[in-house]
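Help wanted!
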Amino acid sequence: MTAAPAALPPLLALASLSAPLPALPLLAGSADYTLPFVGPGTYLIFGIVLLPVYVMVGAWFLGDPSDRFANLLGVGYLAGLTTVLWGSLLVATLVIGAVFF
Amino acid sequence: MSVDVTGVDRDTLVRPIRTVSTRYLAALSVALGMIGVWLFFYLQQLRHGLIVTNLADWGSGGGVPWGLYIGAFIWWVGIAHGGIILSAAVRLLGMDTYQPVARLAELLTIAALTCAGIFILIHVGRPDRLVTSVIPAWPTRVQWSPLMWDVTVITAYFVLTATYLGLTIRYDLHRLRNRLPNRLDPIYDVLLVGYSETEDAVVERMVWWIAFAIIIMAPLLLHGGVIPWLFALLPSMAGWAGGVQGPSFLSIALTSAVSGIIIVAAAFRYAYGWAELIPEAVFRGLGQWLGFFSLLFLWLQLQQVITGIFAAPTTLQHATEVKIATPLYWVAIGVVALAMLYVFAASLRPSLFSLPLLVALSVGVLAGTLIEKVLFVVEGLMHAHFDLYAGVPGAYTPSAVELSALVGTVGIVVLFFLVVSKVIPVVELHAIEDHGEVEG
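Answered by r_m:
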């Protein structure tokens, strides 16, 4: 929103503020509503909450005894289960959209 | 206390898989019936919208948009904690006394987390909103939104727990394969893909690290972190805000979690004649943990009440006065206090110990923790700093639709155990192999 020009009388300036705004895409992810990437959650999720997971996966591969197949099986479980969990919800969403809407 | 279950043979371990009793079928029918009741009401909600719960918007039911759904969500996540924390404690701290119930506890974690997810799913109204609201917004909101943190950590918790179970089950399935039903071979083939006995030592080390990750993440960062932050970071709600919510939520979670394990383990012990496999000493130990966590629960409630009524900011004082004037709050406190007094008394005088009584008290504790959580959510909303909805008529009472969801999720947990116990051993083979005389 732009400030009214200084030369306008106050009432006219107020009127210009109430003029229709250009149509904005009112979506949560649109640029007008997007916050900077770095916020408290960035540090919280990637720096603190997931830290034990980084340590765990690192220890799988770097420690001893270690085995490539077992390590990849573990990573496969982590990635596969996350994908199945949200992927199945996504499929269900698409089905709901196709059937009901 | 010492526990020795080395005399138990492998056939006893797979007994649930190889038998189908009338009681089993009756339990199955009851579980399906409970789920059916919920589905009947849930279909009403899907057809007419959340208006049927009286939670449609802020301004209905005394100004309460969150109620039993959110209270039960927190409650189920809390129950989920006991499972994997107990299992992790067995691996990390060598608390082998509890090994016979470790896998039951892991399974309870998965079932309870599923139920927590269901409550979020039904609370967002249209079920597809879970995806359409979360996935597109996650990359641009996770840096600011506690709701997105919540979704992230619960997903991580669920995945870590399932990975833990998926890796540890391979050892047992391989060695018990000849005792397992052939018709389930396709499932066992998938679970055992690429298995060789040389991986055992590697997998044991891997699951130690999963236990390490979980025991830090689940209590400290989920139920003592992200979930209380959904409330504690909102200064507009006097009854919610403040750093005490982290420890308080965690104490309630651990209290209800141990209660859940006691009930599930006692049910299996009773149903399959497992007195030898899950001896009374396990329950005595779990009872003592229940007593200790109940003490923490009550102590943190005391902290909140005292700081809320003694020279507190006006709205916090009002919220606290309302809380301590609510009879149901004292019911919740009373059942937890009763359980604590009983298990401490039974510790001092062992002859007082009774497993049926411990189970009954555990049911009471679960009811008490659910009541506390629902009151926390509802009263926090009703007594916000701004009194915008003070004139809104009515008062919040859980609707039949919401109550049916509670019944349905309990049915889902029962059904989950009934089905899973027919497929995999619900007690680790390690429990009867490695379990010499263990001090607990």
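OP: Thanks! One thing I noticed: The longest strand of chain B covers residues 2-3.
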